[in-house]
Amino acid sequence: MNLLKIRQYIAAGVCLAGIAALSACGPKTPVASAPPPAPVMVVPPQPMPPRGASPNLVPPPIDAFGVRRTVNAGISTAQTTWNLRSAYNVAALNCLEPKHGQIVVNYREFLKVQAKKLTAVNKLVDQEFKAKHGTRFIPPREAYMTQVYNYFALPPTLSSFCDAALAMSTEAATVKSADLDGFAARSLPSLERVFLEFYRSYDQYRTDLGAWQAKYTASQPIAVAVPGAPQVQAQ
User: What's the pTM?
Assistant: First the structure.
């Protein structure tokens, strides 16, 4: 091989090496990246019913005038006195903590001192139901009184109700029969306030629960926030 061809081969090799070098410096094809992970929403604890109440509890409705239609709404003077007596009876049976022990003692004395007055009030209540329902007034009266007793025996309100009943029983011990209706008219609302406050808090719980469900029950992945526990993603 002569010197001229050797030089030609060398020149061709240099050319090819240059082309390869230029190709290596050119634009690179992008590599597809993995999609970002789905966003995780940290969810606060779900609102819970106040005082351990049932999530299915249905509070008495509120009418157009803003009055909650409990068993004590819109009742007569005689029924007010009888409902107070019924609430007192519930307290004597259910307020069993030592700090409420005086309720039973006061209730027994109340029945003894107010026996004639309570008999007269009971007759008036019978007359009112008879005027409304006719001769078959006893079943509707018994049904209503069952509602009254159940109303005052609502478990989530027991502690507050017993405190209020104890205060009422102390004052009741000094009331004369002639003043019993007036005493009932001002004392029954004091007992009722316990339940109205509870129902307000329950209404607020239902409002908060509805807002929580609307915001946090979508299909996106969530992480439930549990105090003192690590966050765990849920799908």
Answer: 0.76
